[in-house]
Specification:
The structure holds two protein chains of two kinds. By secondary structure, chain A is of the alpha+beta class. Chain A is about 30% helix and about 25% strand. Among the domains of chain A are: about 220 residues, 3-Layer(aba) Sandwich (Rossmann fold); about 60 residues, Dna Ligase, domain 1, CATH 3.30.1490. Chain B is an alpha+beta fold. In chain B, strands 12-11-10-9-13 form a five-stranded antiparallel β-sheet, with helices on one face. Chain B has a four-stranded antiparallel β-sheet with strand order 3-6-1-15, with no helix packed on it. In chain B, α5 links the parallel β7 and β8. Chain B is globular. Classes of the chains: A alpha+beta, B alpha+beta.
């Protein structure tokens, strides 16, 4: 039993309902956290707050800020809230995460190839075809198109949580330009500047080579016959909330950061306007949505894209990262079928668990859902951003009975999941000047090119800073932690 | 075999100088099993080379890009086409039951989903769906489609003033007025609602023999008849598409077949005109 009295952990409640990453059920410190715990338990609140100040300055010096554009804030640049207590993942746990993420992305990539070509999985009835072909993310421009190296999901950000049973579950597959990796890298830089000594006690996987791997992945996907490809990062521009990340990645890869107006298409090749004249571009890491990519093909109002780029893409003269149309793979309704997708294409059992998902179209599932609605979260499959969902434990009897009728009327529109509890991690709270448990998740980053894969050994651990909150998004008061993966 | 000389001509004037522009023209007659494109000649006042590439469905698109300033441009395509003599096709080779089995099979619906789904242009509200006719599975699909062709022809009054290129099928059923584009979207909406794949076709019409239309491009429909293949229907004229129909392209709806698409850098407005000439070659 560690002595918490008189330390920053005094009064720390070890949860019975949630998995605590640092403390076990008996209140003892988990072995891999022992040294970090010892370090922090020796600090006074004043010392810790001073370290926190150092960390903030480090972020400002690195330029890692974000602006909140609302009427009152006047666009003040803010620091993304950061917690100095790192999240540590053991080598054994990481092995499973890595295997599971890779397996998932590979299966989803096969799935994308199939649904844009032969559609075997649909004809075999593994997934209802209306669900896939009717998805608003199904992009007909991708039909029969062969992307370089058969890769669609070049960069993925699988979101993982740890449930109260101690197991990791995949919450979401982000197959469309997931963001956040710049925070991962600057969190590590800040950590090393603020607490250099602590790193001597741990053998932690390095993540600093991520930009080099990102560039290597891009270069591996050069169009045929291009030996030294020109790669660029395409940003919507300085008003995009992730502009810092776009600039950060381009800078760290040593490649150009461009906007749509810097590029043009001539005879199905893409060129960048430079002071030395046009320069052919071969690989584009775009951070704009499918809809805005090409005003000649998609949204004609788009000023962000490059007119004619889809023609160049169909002709195989440019590689677009991630491929258009990957949104089908991270669709909420398709999520329920990912374990089946893994079995279908890879003939393997899924390594990482899916959150149990009840598909109301299936009679058996529907029966269970209708009888257990007060325990479940029910979601419409075609909505995002939390619209139209019912959180059973928080709903009134009337709401539940109304919702029950909606499901009965249109069962194929709904899925249901048990309420998942995110694990908690000690996080320093400035108001109370001590560590308190806060919910966390983990976004991983996986790269896939032609004969090339790379996983960032770490990730973005997001923290819900409000007590009891499960919302980890930065726009809703979320912060982050450096994430350590132990080696050997 | 019938030969045609076809001319597509467009003239665009801009109130403000255009600094940079890219245009895609989908106006060349298709080169497929039914018709051969023998030659084509392009002239443009933009003095830029014209680049040809294939769109999603394999149709030839002409592209011009310029970064030289202009405030007026003309673009003309001359082409010659041979249409093969229609062979008598048996439109009812399968039994009605076999046709229905095919139409309702998952693999058929998966293979043809693009031409079965609702699009922005082919959407119709429940209220106006009352004007649809239903396929009851008790007659041949081809016979139903003939009936549908007739139904749309009789329901909609030809009128060039009440609709434009943005009009969707729902508005067409509401007003019961329109031009070839509207007849086609209306036909497609009903066919798809009944589970019969249908696609929008753009092209030219030889108007020598008393067809409705004007010196513009024409639009009609192709529907998939089980056991037969794609069959052309022209609901504007209550006919099957035949030797007078010269196809340019097909797609889900008008948005896949727009004859001209452009992205330009200018702040002003545009005045655009175009005309079409179809001349049947002397035998």
């Amino acid at each position: 039993m560690p002595q918490l009295k008189g330390t920053l952990f005094e009064g720390y409640p070890v949860s019975k309902e949630h998995y605590d990453e640092v403390f076990n059920e008996k209140g003892g410190v988990r072995k891999h956290y022992q040294k970090v715990f010892n370090y922090f338990s020796k600090l006074s609140a004043e010392e810790f707050i001073e370290l926190n100040q150092h960390a903030k300055i480090s972020f400002i010096n690195q330029g890692v800020t974000f602006a909140v554009y609302s009427e009152n804030s006047e666009g003040i640049e803010r620091v993304f809230p950061f917690d100095l207590f790192p999240r540590i993942i053991t080598a054994r746990e990481w092995e499973k995460i890595e295997k599971g993420v890779q397996q998932r992305v590979q299966a989803l990539n096969e799935f994308l190839w199939d649904i844009y070509h032969d559609k075997k999985i649909l004809k075999d009835g593994v997934i209802p075809y209306e669900l896939v072909l009717g998805s608003k993310f199904y992009n007909k421009e991708m039909i029969d198109l062969d992307p370089a190296g058969r890769v669609y999901i070049h960069i993925s950000g699988t979101d993982i949580i740890r449930h109260s049973d101690g197991e990791y579950y995949v919450l979401e597959d982000n197959a469309r330009s997931p963001s956040g990796v710049s925070y991962v890298l600057s969190n590590r830089t800040t950590m090393k500047r603020t607490l250099p000594n602590i790193f001597f006690h741990y053998n932690i996987a390095s993540i600093e080579d991520y930009p080099q791997n990102l560039l290597a992945m891009m270069e591996s996907l050069a169009p045929e016959g291009v030996a030294q490809p020109t790669c660029v990062v395409l940003t919507p521009g300085i008003y995009n909330s992730a502009y810092y990340e776009h600039a950060f990645l381009a800078h760290n890869m040593g490649i150009e950061l461009v906007e749509g107006r810097d590029l043009f298409v001539d005879r199905n090749f893409v060129y960048m306007k430079t002071i030395y004249g046009p320069k052919k571009v071969d690989v584009i890491y775009r951070r704009i949505d499918d809809d805005f990519l090409d005003p000649l093909v998609f949204n004609p109002e788009s000023l962000l894209g490059v007119p004619g780029i889809m023609g160049a893409y169909r002709a195989g003269n440019i590689t677009i990262i991630n491929a258009p149309g990957t949104g089908v793979a991270d669709d909420k309704a398709v999520y329920a079928y990912v374990p089946d997708i893994i079995r279908y294409y890879l003939g393997e059992e899924p390594v990482l668990k899916n959150v149990q998902t009840y598909i109301c179209e299936r009679e058996e599932d529907r029966k269970y859902v209708l009888e257990n609605m007060e325990k479940l979260v029910v979601k419409p499959v075609d909505e995002s951003g939390g619209y139209g969902l019912l959180i059973g434990p928080k709903a009134t009897k009337k709401e539940i009975s109304q919702y029950r009728e909606k499901i009965k009327k249109n069962p194929r529109k709904y899925i249901a999941q048990p309420v998942m509890s995110l694990s908690v991690h000690p996080t320093f709270i400035e108001d109370t000047k001590r560590f308190e448990p806060r919910h966390i998740d983990l976004r991983t980053f996986f790269l896939m090119g032609r004969g090339f894969t790379h996983i960032l050994k770490g990730g973005l651990t997001r923290v819900a800073l409000k007590r009891g909150s499960l919302v980890v998004n930065s726009s809703q008061g979320g912060g982050s932690k450096d994430t350590w993966v132990m080696e050997g | 075999m019938i030969g045609y000389k076809i001319t597509y001509h467009t003239e665009n004037s801009y109130s403000q100088t255009v600094k940079e522009a890219i245009f895609d023209f989908l106006v060349l007659p298709a080169d497929d099993d039914r018709q051969r494109r023998l030659s084509h000649k392009i002239s443009s006042t933009l003095k830029e080379p014209v680049f040809m590439y294939k769109n999603l469905y394999g149709f030839d698109v002409l592209r011009i890009r310029t970064s030289k300033a202009f405030d007026h441009f003309e673009f003309t395509v001359h082409s010659t086409v041979h249409i093969k003599k229609e062979e008598e096709r048996d439109m009812r080779p399968l039994s009605i039951k076999e046709e229905v089995d095919i139409l309702t099979s998952d693999s058929f619906r998966i293979d043809n989903f693009l031409f079965l789904r609702k699009t922005r242009y082919t959407l119709v509200s429940p209220k106006n769906k009352k004007k649809f006719i239903r396929y009851d599975g008790k007659k041949h699909v081809f016979d139903f489609l003939l009936e549908l062709n007739n139904h749309i022809y009789n329901l909609i009054k030809y009128c060039t003033l009440s609709t434009d290129v943005h009009t969707i099928a729902d508005q067409v059923f509401e007003m019961e007025k329109g031009v070839c584009q509207d007849y086609s979207h209306a036909f497609i909406a009903v066919a798809r609602e009944n589970g019969i794949p249908a696609r929008y076709v753009s092209g030219y019409l030889n108007q020598g023999v008393g067809f409705i239309g004007d010196t513009l491009m024409h639009a009609w429909v192709e529907a998939l008849v089980p056991g037969v293949g794609w069959v052309g229907f022209d609901p504007t004229n209550n006919q099957l598409a035949g030797e007078n129909h010269i196809k340019v392209a097909h797609g889900e709806d008008y948005s896949d077949c727009a004859p001209i698409k452009g992205v330009l850098k200018t702040t002003g407005t545009v005045e655009t005109k175009y005309s079409v000439q179809v001349i049947q070659e002397q035998q």
